[in-house]
Q: What sequence folds into this?
């Protein structure tokens, strides 16, 4: 794609602002209810099943009476019977009548519920009923559908479609309003009580009440979409969820939040969330019933049941039930849609569902965990295992809030836990910490002050960590920490335990859920101590791998593929010390480092995804003896995921661009991004090889040192992007979308800002900001949890239109995703003031939740409302996407 084409697309979007959203514009759709012809016949549908109720009795080949007193699962107050008193046909109408039960009956009312299960089952179509509804407090008529076979599990996991429900019609409320709503609803999701339902209420215009006359109620159900109608007017639409993917084709959110399904997959047995057409993709059957009371009607309007309303019976009168099939495509039900403007608009008919938003993809980096620092972490409460005390939050003169533990006569251990049974805060959840990716450089660290020693002065102080519900643990004395000290009463002391030390002591670091600090069991009586700044962390949040530096990495041993030699550690010059030495004999081979278990490795591939941009594979090599084939090319080969992908390159194609020279240490650097572009999957690197070309290496002896996979900038690499500070970032420009001006760099009178970007809006509507070059995108995924978009702005001249609103808009992946917010929706919550520098901060998490694909940000705009900005002059500085 050319940059001109991309700009033209955005320009066209801006020009079309009157009819679609774009470049800061918006569009509204207003529905004219009077323009809908509710008498028009159903079109594009073929009748495949119906009951016109023109016989003398209910057709038992079509309907089955349900007979029970189960209360419908909603604590309803009727028994369903097959008595003609509760369901009969008269004058070409089905009458379902709820009446008081005889004295001594199991429930106070009787009624009827009819279904078509195994007699008329349908997948997709139009389902329609013409009926007059009952009224009164406690009445609950329904025309609805349930799955014939619960393919995805019991209710509601296999779904429920409520075509029409109404409760308490014609009831006059205390505020003088009269209940007149009908409802269309879907039920779906997880097992009760975590099930969900979504739908919409509809009141017939002009104060018409559904209990006064006959009206037609219908749904049109097609693959992925269900629409609700009253008298032909479409009032609600629900859809399957639509997953949003980032530029790496990872699920990052939902374009539309609709329904979902969650069930155990056959074969794998895993509980999986589905955002597709399930569960509404199976056969359903029809149900007609009239309930009395229950959880819904008894808790709304005037509440309870008005027995006077049922003295003479309440009747649900049905003229007909009809089912149509879409002739265009019966398999999907698509092609016969009866729609109107606004049917797919969230401000009008479209209903947002309750589907869970997919978790953001992993950046490949374990984020540092703060268990305690000034306040409790709701997911990791402070904990007294067995002594009955409650660890307290107390104020320390020099440190702010700290946790205070005490040990009484009952033996106990104290610390912090993330097990569900000990979490009492409703917002907390069990959050075992996976420290696998920080095993090499990570640690657990805390500060402690003993204010009162145990009565047994010889009591040893212990540090214990458990994982996976105590299935593994490591217990060490405090003096085994990196600081090598025991507690001294009255002094704050720091204790650091490397994760590798804990793993060597038997801890599985993949699911740490308890951290304990305590005097030895049974010897701690009388101890009072304070703890602060408890964390599981590493000094860099970016993953790195040391293959060899002064010693063998036991998880990545030296490896001769096929020659039968044993690569060795040898001593080299004072600068390099111990290095790895490889020797090639007559048998062709390759050599290097492998993490695969069959050669003695740990079987833990290295995930370099988080350092894909800017990360490198780097090593030093000295050839002690050249191969007998002197012109043999020297190669680097890297494999991933058990050789599912691999890349092989000559060492001369390194960033240094040099071939090996005998007797000389030389550095070789290869970009991970370049390796990925050449076909390597960077997420599971498990072999790194350095060797003369296969079959031409005989006689070669060479040494390797400082072999690493890392990001040269360390933590700075995760610090984000500065879009403008004195000048625009490389490959970014200050930009006027559509007004034809050229934003400039000016020197501001405020010395703290210096050079700033200045934007001027003329008579032509436009938006302005910062634009990435063609095919340039910023991936902020690694900053999601803590990152912000932040900038300073000063308005030097306000727009002539005083109603103009100042807006912030950010786009991603060539405008495939965007979020627009008012500046007063920033963290600072302020609108611009003329002549004043002001800071605006927008959290990345909030932008992501609003629909932004943060993996490919390419436009950032700040502007007055489209078409209202003429006369505005404003300056922007310190534009950055960073971690707070």
A:
């Amino acid at each position: 794609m050319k940059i001109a084409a991309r700009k033209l697309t955005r320009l066209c979007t801006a020009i079309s602002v009157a009819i679609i959203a774009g470049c800061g514009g918006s569009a509204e759709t207003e529905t004219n209810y009077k323009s809908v012809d509710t008498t028009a016949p159903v079109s594009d549908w073929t009748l495949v099943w119906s009951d016109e109720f023109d016989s003398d009795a209910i057709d038992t080949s079509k309907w089955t009476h349900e007979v029970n007193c189960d209360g419908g699962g909603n604590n309803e107050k009727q028994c369903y019977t097959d008595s003609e008193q509760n369901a009969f046909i008269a004058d070409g109408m089905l009458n379902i009548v709820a009446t008081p039960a005889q004295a001594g009956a199991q429930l106070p009312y009787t009624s009827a519920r009819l279904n078509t299960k195994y007699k008329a089952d349908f997948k997709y179509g139009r389902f329609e009923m013409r009926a007059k509804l009952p009224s009164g407090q406690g009445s609950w008529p329904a025309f609805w559908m349930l799955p014939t076979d619960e393919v995805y599990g019991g209710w509601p996991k296999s779904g429920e479609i409520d075509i029409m429900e109404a409760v308490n019609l014609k009831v006059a409320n205390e505020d003088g309003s009269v209940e007149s709503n009908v409802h269309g609803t879907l039920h779906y999701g997880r097992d009760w009580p975590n099930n969900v339902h979504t739908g919409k209420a509809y009141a017939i215009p002009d104060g018409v009440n559904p209990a006064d006359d006959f009206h037609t109620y219908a749904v049109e159900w097609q693959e992925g979409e269900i629409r609700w109608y009253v008298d032909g007017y479409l009032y609600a639409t629900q859809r399957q969820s639509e997953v949003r993917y980032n530029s790496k084709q990872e699920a990052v959110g939902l374009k539309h939040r609709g329904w979902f399904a969650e069930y155990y997959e056959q074969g794998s047995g895993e509980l999986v969330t589905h955002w597709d057409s399930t569960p509404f993709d199976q056969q359903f059957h029809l149900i007609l019933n009239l309930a009395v009371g229950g959880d819904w009607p008894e808790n709304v309007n005037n509440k309870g049941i008005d027995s006077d309303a049922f003295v003479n019976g309440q009747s649900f009168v049905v003229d007909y039930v009809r089912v149509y099939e879409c002739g265009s495509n019966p398999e999907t039900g698509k092609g016969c849609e009866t729609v109107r403007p606004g049917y797919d608009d969230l401000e009008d008919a479209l209903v947002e569902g309750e589907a869970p938003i997919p978790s953001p993809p992993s950046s490949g980096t374990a984020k540092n965990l703060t268990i305690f620092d000034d306040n409790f972490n709701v997911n990791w409460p402070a904990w007294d295992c067995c002594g009955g005390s409650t660890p307290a939050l107390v104020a320390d003169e020099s440190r702010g809030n700290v946790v205070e533990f005490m040990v009484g006569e009952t033996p106990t251990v104290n610390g912090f836990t993330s097990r569900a049974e000990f979490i009492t805060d409703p917002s907390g959840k069990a959050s075992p910490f996976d420290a696998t990716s920080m095993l090499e450089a990570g640690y657990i660290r805390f500060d402690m002050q003993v204010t009162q020693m145990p009565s047994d002065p010889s009591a040893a102080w212990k540090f214990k960590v458990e994982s996976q519900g105590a299935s593994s643990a490591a217990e060490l004395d405090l003096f085994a920490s990196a600081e090598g000290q025991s507690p001294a009463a009255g002094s704050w002391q720091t204790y650091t335990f490397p994760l590798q030390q804990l793993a060597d002591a038997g801890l599985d670091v993949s699911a740490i859920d308890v951290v304990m600090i305590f005097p030895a069991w049974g010897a701690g009586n009388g101890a009072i101590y304070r703890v602060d700044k408890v964390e599981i962390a590493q000094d860099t949040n970016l993953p790195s791998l040391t293959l060899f530096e002064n010693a063998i990495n036991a998880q990545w041993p030296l490896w001769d593929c096929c020659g039968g030699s044993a690569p060795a550690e040898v001593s080299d010059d004072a600068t390099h010390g111990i290095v790895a030495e490889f020797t090639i004999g007559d048998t062709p081979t390759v050599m290097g480092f492998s993490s695969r278990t069959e050669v003695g490795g740990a079987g833990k591939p290295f995930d370099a995804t988080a350092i894909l941009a800017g990360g490198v594979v780097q090593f030093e090599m000295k050839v002690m003896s050249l191969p007998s084939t002197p012109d043999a090319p020297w190669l680097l080969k890297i494999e991933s995921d058990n050789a599912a992908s691999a890349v092989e390159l000559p060492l001369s194609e390194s960033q240094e661009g040099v071939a090996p020279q005998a007797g000389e240490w030389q550095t070789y650097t290869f970009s991970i991004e370049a390796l990925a572009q050449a076909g390597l999957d960077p997420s599971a690197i498990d072999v790194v090889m350095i060797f003369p070309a296969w079959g031409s290496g005989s006689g070669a002896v060479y040494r390797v040192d400082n072999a690493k996979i890392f990001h040269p900038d360390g933590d700075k690499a995760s610090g984000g992007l500065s879009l403008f500070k004195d000048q625009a970032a490389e490959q970014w420009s200050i930009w006027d979308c559509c007004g034809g001006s050229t934003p400039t760099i000016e020197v501001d009178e405020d010395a703290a800002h210096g050079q700033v970007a200045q934007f001027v809006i003329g008579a032509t509507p436009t938006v302005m900001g910062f634009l990435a070059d063609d095919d340039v995108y910023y991936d902020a995924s690694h900053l999601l949890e803590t990152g912000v978009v932040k900038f300073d702005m000063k308005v030097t001249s306000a727009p002539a239109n005083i109603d103009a609103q100042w807006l912030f808009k950010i786009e991603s992946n060539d405008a495939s995703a965007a979020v627009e917010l008012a500046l007063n929706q920033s963290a600072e919550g302020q609108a611009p003031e003329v002549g004043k520098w002001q800071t605006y901060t927008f959290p990345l998490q909030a932008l992501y939740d609003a629909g932004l694909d943060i993996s490919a940000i390419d436009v950032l705009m700040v502007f007055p409302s489209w078409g209202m900005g003429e006369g505005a002059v404003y300056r922007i500085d310190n534009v950055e996407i960073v971690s707070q």
